[in-house]
């Protein structure tokens, strides 16, 4: 298939792009970053690249982009400013929203105006859709929450639903993605390796996680398997409490699990963004049935990510 990738140039893309190429898909990557800034350890001759900011509507008139859209069989849209890396100022919240909502809205509008019907569009979302809870369990049928992230996900999914009539749409509400070179695990590993690791906050919040290899495999399966249509929770089948995550990480590294990271410190650093790690949610999938997770259990996932 000819696949257009939006926002697949960072932590997830680092594994997704080479995996797609190994499956003999033809790849077009569109990013606002120059090609030299991509976090892809690849021969750049193996894919086609266009640098452009798709959150600006005028850029959807770019002739090179329109030619790519006309040729593409499928689109993977994971575009978005990182959620939990900066303090949630008003300006940062606007960036988080615009990078997702505007890009997706302008894409759907352009496809429909030009009567382009890709076979499939895979659109990102997040388990933040459900809000946070210490006790509730959420599936794809659960209602959305009411906080900033919930409203962001609901709006992102709503604009994605404005897809061309004959295009199959798959939305993945993605959990906490685990691998050593980024995400939550990437931030925690250096601290644990020197023996100073511990749970974040009180350790009682839920972590609904997925190993990056399983996320990439799910995305690629959804490209070709027509049974994938609608919303799916991209999470491993066994969510854990933060204190269990911390204990497992310490065990896999043969390091103590000692010092909790106070919630107050995270709130100073991240503001409202601290909610992402201090207030979790227990999310499972009631719809992913025909996929065998390579890493269904946390210990296996963390061991695989830390063994080298």
Describe the secondary structure blueprint for this structure:
Blueprint: E1 2-6, H1 13-22, E2 26-31, E3 48-51, H2 63-71, E4 74-77, H3 90-113, E5 120-126, E6 137-138, H4 148-160, E7 168-174, E8 176-178, H5 183-193, E9 206-207, E10 209-211, H6 212-224, E11 230-234, E12 240-241, H7 242-253, H8 263-270, H9 275-278, E13 282-283, H10 298-306
Parallel strand pairs: 1-2, 1-4, 2-3, 4-5, 5-7, 6-13, 7-11, 8-10
Antiparallel strand pairs: 9-12
Helix pairs in contact: 1-6, 3-4, 7-10
GO biological process, one term: cell division
Domain DUF1731: 261-302
Domain NAD-dependent epimerase/dehydratase: 3-226
In short:
It contains ten helices and 13 strands.
Query: Which fold name corresponds to the CATH topology of the largest domain?
Result: Rossmann fold
Structural class: alpha/beta
Domains counted in the coordinates: how many?
2
Count of separate DSSP helical elements:
10
CATH superfamily of the largest domain: NAD(P)-binding Rossmann-like Domain
Radius of gyration: 19 Å
Mean pLDDT: 90
The top-level CATH class of the largest domain is Alpha Beta
Please tell me what the overall shape is. Answer: globular
Unreliably modeled segments: none
Q: Please give the alpha-carbon distance between the first and last residues.
A: 34 Å
Task: Summarize the helix and strand pattern as letters.
Answer: EHEEHEHEEHEEHEEHEEHHHEH
CATH architecture of the largest domain: 3-Layer(aba) Sandwich
Query: In which range does the helix fraction lie?
Result: 25-40%
Domain DUF1731: 261-302
Keywords: Cell cycle, Cell division
Organism: Prochlorococcus marinus (strain MIT 9215)
Protein name: Putative cell division inhibitor
């Amino acid at each position: 298939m000819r696949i257009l990738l939006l926002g697949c140039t960072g932590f997830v893309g680092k594994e997704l792009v080479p995996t797609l190429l190994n499956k003999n898909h033809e790849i077009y990557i569109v990013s606002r970053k120059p090609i030299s800034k991509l976090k892809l350890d690849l021969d750049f001759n193996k894919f086609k690249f266009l640098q452009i900011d798709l959150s600006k509507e005028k850029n959807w008139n770019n002739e090179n982009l329109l030619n790519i859209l006309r040729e593409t069989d499928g689109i993977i849209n994971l575009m978005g400013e990182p959620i939990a890396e900066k303090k949630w100022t008003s300006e940062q919240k606007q960036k988080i929203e615009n990078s997702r909502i505007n890009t997706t809205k302008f894409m759907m509008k352009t496809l429909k105006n030009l009567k382009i019907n890709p076979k499939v569009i895979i659109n990102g979302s997040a388990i933040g859709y459900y809000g946070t809870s210490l006790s509730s369990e959420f599936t794809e049928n659960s209602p959305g929450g009411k906080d900033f992230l919930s409203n962001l996900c609901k709006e992102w999914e709503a604009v994605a639903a404005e897809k061309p009539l004959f295009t199959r749409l798959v939305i993945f509400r993605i959990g906490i993605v685990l691998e050593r070179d980024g995400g939550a695990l990437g931030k925690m590993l250096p601290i644990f390796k020197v023996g100073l690791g511990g749970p974040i906050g009180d350790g009682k919040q839920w972590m609904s996680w997925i190993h990056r290899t399983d996320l990439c495999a799910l995305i690629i399966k959804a490209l070709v398997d027509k049974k994938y249509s609608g919303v799916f929770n991209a999470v491993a089948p066994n969510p854990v409490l933060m204190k269990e995550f911390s204990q497992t990480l310490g065990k896999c590294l043969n390091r103590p699990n000692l010092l909790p990271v106070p919630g107050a410190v995270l709130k100073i650093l991240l503001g409202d963004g601290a909610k992402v790690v201090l207030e979790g949610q227990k999310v499972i999938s009631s719809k992913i049935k025909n996929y065998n997770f390579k890493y269904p259990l946390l210990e296996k996932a963390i061991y695989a990510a830390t063994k080298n």
